[in-house]
Design goal:
Distance between the termini: 46 Å
Strand order of the largest sheet: 3-1-2-4-5-6-7
Number of domains: 2
Oligomer: single chain
Low-confidence stretches: 177-195, 207-234, 243-253
Number of helices: 7
Mean pLDDT: 78
Bound molecules: iron/sulfur cluster
Structural class: alpha/beta
Shape: globular
Length: about 250
């Protein structure tokens, strides 16, 4: 197994301050992937026993909450085989610290439903992982401030509870409710106002309805409340301009 990178301080990919390893090799090739160089299984450095020692050392400080494993694709067979030793050692030395793992596979269908039953190494791996974030990254479902995941289709799974209960147990970190209506919102419309002076020099208001892309919009109780700044304002302006409507810079877009 090769790895692309090791981050000594990571506050994005799991709770608290973490050490992260990005393994090499991924067959998913998701559109918009930020780690394209790690698609190649030969990219980066060889993962060796000394790499495990290095990670164990990095995780020593009390402020490190755990290890996050990303990619590339940690659950490609060759990577799973390489990672078993790492997760077992981490749990042996730091039983109180958590291990998060990000995968493009679907936990229920592919990981627990298939690999776990077929491979001893998957079993060993899952028995040492606390949280798995599953599912391919879907650019159209991307929201920038989702907690610990990139797109709304991805789920955060409590692996220990799932193994115990024999079914997928999802974890919620508070952001889900905010976005949960998005998937169901059909053709959401956003209102914005354009102020201008009419022919009598009076201030008039024009009301526009803009059909927005679902995952750019924050929906609460099925009501669209604002545009999520997943895109730069300029990009939003361009999208709206393409619909032939002007945009007021003071609107909430
Ligand atoms: S699964 Fe992850 S590493 Fe692989 S292509 Fe998708 S986003 Fe990139």
């Amino acid at each position: 197994m090769n790895y692309a990178d090791i981050k000594t301080v990571d506050i994005q990919d799991g709770t608290g301050v973490r050490v992260s390893i990005y393994v090499s090799g991924c067959h998913f090739h998701c559109k918009g992937c930020h780690n394209k160089e790690a698609w190649d299984f030969n990219y980066g450095k060889k993962f060796e026993d000394s790499t495990i020692d290095y990670i164990i050392d990095l995780m020593k400080p009390g402020y490190i909450s755990g290890l996050s494993i990303l990619g590339g694709e940690p659950l490609e067979i060759i990577n799973q085989q390489g990672l078993v030793k790492l997760v077992e050692r981490v749990k042996e030395v730091y039983p109180e610290k958590t291990i998060w793992c990000y995968t493009g596979y679907d936990f229920e269908k592919d990981v627990y439903g298939k690999m776990y039953k077929e491979h001893d190494f998957t079993k060993k791996l899952l028995e040492n992982i606390d949280i798995m974030v599953d599912g391919e990254f879907v650019e159209e479902k991307k929201i920038v401030d989702l907690k610990f995941r990139g797109s709304t289709n991805q789920k955060k799974i409590d692996v220990k509870a799932s193994l115990k209960e024999g079914k997928t147990v999802q974890l919620k970190f508070g952001d889900e409710a905010r976005y949960e209506n998005i998937e169901e919102t059909k053709n959401p419309k956003v209102l914005f106002f354009h102020e201008f002076k009419d022919k009598n020099n009076e201030i008039a208001k024009e009301e526009h309805e803009v059909i927005a892309i679902a995952n750019q919009v924050i929906a609460e109780n099925e009501k669209i409340v604002s545009i999520q700044p997943a895109y730069e304002v300029k990009e939003v302006e361009e999208k709206i301009a393409a619909k032939g409507i002007g945009i007021d810079k003071d609107s909430n877009l």
